[in-house]
Amino acid sequence: MVAKLDTGGFEVSMTEYDAVIVGGGMGGLVAGSLLARSGLKIAVFEKSGALGGRAWSRKSGDKIMEGGTHILPCADRGEMAKVLCFLGIDVNIIPFEELLIYHQGKLQSDRKLISSNEAQKEVNRIKAEILTMSFEQTEALDNVTFKDWINERVKLDETMAYFTARALVFSTINDISELSAGELLRRMKKWIETGIHSGIVEQGLVSIYEAISSSIENDGGMVRTKTRVNEIVIKDEKVKGVKLKSADGEKLIESKVVISNPPVWEIFKLISEDNFPSWFVSMADHLRKNSLYHVIGLGGVMKKPLYEGHKYVSVIDSPINHIGFQLAHPTNFSSAYAPSEGKHIISGGSTSDKEFSESKIESIKEGFSEDIQTIFSDYDWKKNCERFMAVSMPNVILDGVHRKPHLVWKNKPDVRAPKILGLYFVGDTVRSTGAGMEAPFSSAFRCVNRIISDWKVLK
Ligand SMILES: Cc1cc2nc3c(=O)[nH]c(=O)nc-3n(C[C@H](O)[C@H](O)[C@H](O)COP(=O)(O)OP(=O)(O)OC[C@H]3O[C@@H](n4cnc5c(N)ncnc54)[C@H](O)[C@@H]3O)c2cc1C
């Protein structure tokens, strides 16, 4: 039993948990589900009205709305697939049959990026080198740019175009000097070993949150939305529980372990900075200042699809706007994405380090229509596009998506907090690998493994 606390006037819950998770984003839900399956008594508290955090996804009747294109970069071979398999959750992830890459004025299948024998030999030699790299060798390259790494190895333009397209395929930046060589090489090694297996969830990401949340409850855990954690209670450098704010008032919940899922720098809203070593505070501050992007989300309703089939388009350097953007036709994958019968939607987006002005958004929007018309020259955009909009989202955290030098793996805090026994982190702002949502999933695996190996000390 945990000793009774000085509650400072708060109502004390009679329930004591093994682990409380602050936040019901991908990372928090996955960590919660794995711990609940391991037999721990857990509770997840999410401050907003819905689960999923930044991976926003909602149901409206039998239709789905996603707050992004929400492609899963490693759909059936990655960390998410492992979790779903372990929990026995069956969701249909529809794989891309083809990735279309627009680069240097050409739209082509990623399988056809190389045509000459010499380039193929050069690509094979570099791939062989990537395959033999250890984790430590990639870690040593975390703060090196991918451009510097690849420049040293490539002689032919065709090979350079191949690796540039491969590096930028799931990002919206168009410059390989903005990507960490270490993180990219870890990812490429996996792609060479298993192939790129990306896809879209047939019933939306929301179906995954619902399934994971049910799994937690079936394993005896609790998941609550509209419940904000106001404070993580620490005594003698040890976690004691959390103070909550919900519609029913304020409560103190006792717990041996607390896992924090919000971006790691937000921990200082819940625990005073004084409880952490100064290197940790500086590290979190460095991430806070450098992890924000300005996103421009693009969406359109079309009378006719731009292309048929389960394909995904990655534009590395667009012909008119000269930006990188991603584009998908979710309605080609599932009719649940359609606003109404017979309509087709496209969704996509781009990002910038600087906030987009109103006039810039207008010009990107117009340029984007022209970009699409140029890329899909047989398509009549004017005739077939019923509605098209561009939405600006300033200050969005894209840690797992844009993996910049100095902002990956060794520059991030580990999943176990320093100095405070029982405090852990999950999410894409702590040590994790993989593109996009793979990052919170991989951090959750590390976090759960660490808790299980620390359990003797914690309980
Ligand atoms: C616009 C956009 C598009 C994206 N597109 C893709 C994509 O196509 N493919 C892909 O793989 N990835 C994509 N990503 C990345 C992916 O969404 C994120 O990597 C992932 O959702 C991060 O999950 P997380 O668990 O780390 O954190 P979060 O999602 O940030 O979860 C943290 C949770 O904690 C909650 N919280 C915070 N404070 C408290 C508190 N005090 N008490 C209780 N709860 C609290 C928050 O409300 C939130 O729900 C995209 C991200 C964005 C922003």
Shape: globular
Each distinct ligand? flavin-adenine dinucleotide
The residue ranges in which pLDDT falls below 50 over 5 or more consecutive positions are: 1-14
Quick one: biggest sheet? 7 strands, mixed
The H-level CATH homologous superfamily of the largest domain, spelled out, is: FAD/NAD(P)-binding domain
Approximately what portion of the residues adopt beta-strand conformation? 25-35%
Q: What is the rounded distance between the termini?
A: 9 Å
CATH architecture of the largest domain: 3-Layer(bba) Sandwich
CATH topology of the largest domain: FAD/NAD(P)-binding domain
Strand tally:
18
* Overall number of structural domains: 3
Question: How would you explain this protein's 3D organization?
Answer:
The protein has 13 helices and 18 strands. It has 459 residues and is an alpha/beta fold. It folds into three domains: 11-94 and 203-290 and 402-458, FAD/NAD(P)-binding domain (3-Layer(bba) Sandwich); 108-194, no CATH class; 292-397. Strands 1, 2, 9, 10, 11, 12 and 18 form a seven-stranded mixed β-sheet that branches. The longest helix has 21 residues, at 438-458. Residues 1-14 have low confidence and may be disordered. It binds flavin-adenine dinucleotide. Flavin-adenine dinucleotide (FAD) is lined by residues 22-28, 45-48, 53-55, 68-73, 228-229, 261-262, 295, 396, 398, 400-401, 427-428, 436-437, 439-440. Flavin-adenine dinucleotide (FAD) binds next to α1, β10 and α13.
